[in-house]
Amino acid sequence: MRRIPFLTPRLPEPSVVARDYREICETGVFTNSGPFEGRFAAELARWIGRDVEVAVTANATVGIQLACKTLFHRDRRLVPVASFTAAAVPLALIWSGFEPVLIDIEPKTWQPDLRMAERFLQREVDNVAGILLTSTFGTANAAIDAWETLATRYGVPLVIDSAAGFASEYSWGEPLGGRGDCEIFSFHATKTMAIGEGGAVVSRDHGFIRQINQLKNFGFDDYRRSWGLGQNGKLPELASAMGIRQLEVFKDRLTKRQEVLRWYITELEPLGCAFQSDGSLGVPAFVSVALPSQRHREELRMKLDEVEVGWRAYFNPPIHGHPAFAELQRAGDLAVTDDLCGRIISLPLDDWLTQADVGRIVSAVGCVVGH
Predict the structure, then answer these.
(1) For the domain 14-245, what is the CATH code?
(2) What share of the chain is helix, strand, coil (3-state, %, to 5)?
(3) What is the pTM of this model?
(4) What confidence tens digit (pLDDT) does each residue in 284-306 have?
């Protein structure tokens, strides 16, 4: 029986990248805003539209740090952020000098709880530096208009972490990338849009993107004078070239992955499994499913191991379950997060999966849920 791995990074063919590498060697420019970086940023901006500008970065965490350091109120420390997210998010805030305050998620969308965030802002607005809104599993937040209104009402910046969401769309057809004060994407090897490691900061404010491009290179101006609290956050030319190649075939890959996702939803929903609302509009690197109970999740883990299918449980533990973040302030009860974390399991989603592969996984789920 062929093992189905949980996730296999899909990067450009070596022979294709070799041609780009030869060109890079011939020009002698390997980093520091070379021609491939400029082309990659421009291609990303064209994909997103809405007159956005893009700064590519070494990774998404650097992008969050630079964005928050630039946009958030420097005389305030508190930043509401969902506990149902990756550890990189609060770490980026803490390294940037801010204090994450954890909020819950909504039960159907799995997106950050808007009402809890609003209640927290009502209480602590004078201490809130900004809002870091996470797009859960890269899925577009259907309440984005309300989040933007909330940020405007209380006079705080809105930074959106859409790490896994490049090419995801809202239900009305708008692609992610043009909302809030800026939006951040990840191109880590585990993402659908993968280049190994890398990220992008996207905004309709072109002046802000010029700031990010300056800060990611130690804050240097054209005379190599540092004008801000920058760092080394540049994306190398080879990684940029890989990104350009990925975009050339990305639409075909998305079509296939969304087909596989539909197979899962069609087969698993009748078994009582729940999916993130609007999740089918995303481009996830894996399929996240909420099972009826934590007992079902524990039994399914063993069953998947038995039938040689890879799995993970994101985001379990949630942020407040990590020792490093145990002392973080909470804006309210995190009951929805705790409940979902106990029931969720993430399953393989890859370009090469067949209906037979998905059927094998569905069969394992059926054995557990039916029992």
Answers:
(1) 3.40.640.10
(2) 45, 15, 40
(3) 0.96
(4) 899 999 999 999 999 999 999 99
